[in-house]
Specification:
Blueprint lengths: L4 E4 L1 E4 L2 E8 L18 H24 L7 H13 L3 H14 L3 H17 L4 H5 L1 H15 L14 E4 L4 H8 L5 E4 L7 H9 L3 E3 L4 H4 L5 E5 L4 E4 L3 H22 L15 E6 L5 H6 L5 E4 L14 H15 L4 E4 L28 H7 L1 H14 L5 E5 L5 H21 L8 E6 L2 H5 L1 H7 L2 E4 L1 H9 L17 H17 L3 E3 L10 H7 L3 E4 L4 H9 L3 H11 L6 H14 L5
Parallel strand pairs: 3-4, 4-5, 5-6, 9-10, 9-16, 10-11, 11-12, 12-13, 13-14, 14-15
Antiparallel strand pairs: 1-8, 2-6, 3-7, 7-8
Helix pairs in contact: 1-2, 1-3, 1-6, 1-7, 3-4, 4-6, 7-8, 12-14, 13-14, 14-15, 17-19, 20-22, 22-23
Length: about 575
Amino acid sequence: MTLSCTGIGIGTSRGIAIGQAHLLQRGRRLELMPRYIDREEVPDEVDRFRQAVSEARRQLRSAQKKIPASTPSDIVAFIDTHLLMLNDAALVEVPINRIREQSCSAEWALQIQRNELAQVFDAMEDPYLRTRKDDVDHVVNRIQQRLLQLDENEQEELEGKIIVAQDLTPADAILMRHRGITAFITEYGGPMSHTAILARSLGIPAVVGVRHATHCLRHGEQLIVDGEQGVVLAAVDDDTLSYYRSRIEAARLQTAELRRLIGQPAATRDGRTIRLMANIELPEDIESTRSLGADGVGLYRTEYLYMNRSTPPDEEEHYRAYLEVVQGLDGIPVTIRTLDLGVDKQIDGAYARDEQVCNPALGLRAIRLCLKEPRLFLPQLRAILRVAAAGPVRIMIPMLSTLQEVYQLKELIEQTKASLARDGLPFDPMIQIGGMIEVPAAALSADAFARELDFLSIGTNDLIQYTLAIDRIDDEVNYLYDPLHPSVLRLIQMVIDAGRRQKIPVSMCGEMAGDPHYIPLLLGMGLTELSMQPGALLEAKRTLRGLNADGLIRQVGELMPSIDDPESTDRLSWLIRTSLEPAP
């Protein structure tokens, strides 16, 4: 019997994988030395650099086409940002000029430019902007890998392998998933990092934050990755292998069992029915939404229509895209979220700002941008109103923070209705208007918003981030990202209570809604609508069917007033845990 070696990290995507380790050098800083060339070699060197940039773009575009529809828009934007940088003169033209002027190699010209840009970012006072240096490093590294032909031979067999890396960009994770990898392990990252969120969207086991993994694990050795427990095992004995293989088989049977729930009601043991809806982004997600029996689409993200293009989509393009979804869902209600773009997710040629923005997450984005730039917003509004005449459609506004935004929005919608009437185009004059509650100010004013809107939807991803003042994808602080923080729970409860008082529906569409660990708590808080990625629907249904709603509502109601008390927090955790245990 051999002694196993255990690595502990953060499990970010449930599931177990067994396979050979494939150590990836990507992400490590390349040690480059100055290299100079003869003058007659300069044209060929420029061509070599341009080819490397072109190949880097091709890689990213390939990854872009393979992004799962359930992937959050901020991760999609991560790849979009890198594509934009590959068209930026600072990373493309300046190194070429340096090759020509100094007769240096493409690698060295790019490295000098990287160092100069890094100094600019390091000198910035704002911590958020300083971290944007990482994007420069990601893009530079991708080009350098092509120049040095170190970019992991694309024909190399990865089927069934477990990737071990310091870190992975979303593009790398997507491309390697489509080459058959079975899991990945990274030294950096947290539960809400880009890579972790993407692992859940890809449905692949992953453990992040395993320090020194690339030094402790050997290329080609057999590994076990337990994505739920956050454990990595190497040098395991036969008994351990047998145990984990039995768990994989049990998971396979469990998946087959979940499929039997299709068509069954999402009702608790005491007969309370919960609406389970899907978050979608692309028309390709229609089939899974229908086949899994979703009660509706609680969040249809529309940013993909604006990305990677030189001009914004016109009204007809909006209309055709929405009509495809509405007709494909054949009567299932659809909630269309208006564009959630901003300074961190821009459209080439459609909207740009020259001035420096200190913190894009707090800047001109979402409804703020829409109201300031109606040329972006009006074509979408007209299309949504028109498509609502073809099927059950609601409109949802992201990042509301003041009632004035609601008043302006309503006025704009009325003007749009009048315009459509003048044009003789059919539309739904009674379309429901809802708001995403993802800013603490909106949650604190939930009663006022509930009086003005037809429904509310809690976006927990941003609500938690803004409430706790942390960037959920920043490895240095994401340990503070806590959905069970008393302040977060109070804000969620305020929104639910406001909806109940004003007799309007309240749903939740953040990642918290699709996590079985939180469903007992959310049910106990009074939520009756949950919206999640399609792949989470059946497990959520299974969880709900094992719960007693009346009992949870009573117990959570008793605990919430004293939620700051550690004893109440412990009891709440116990309540969640025991609620998820199989019924006798």
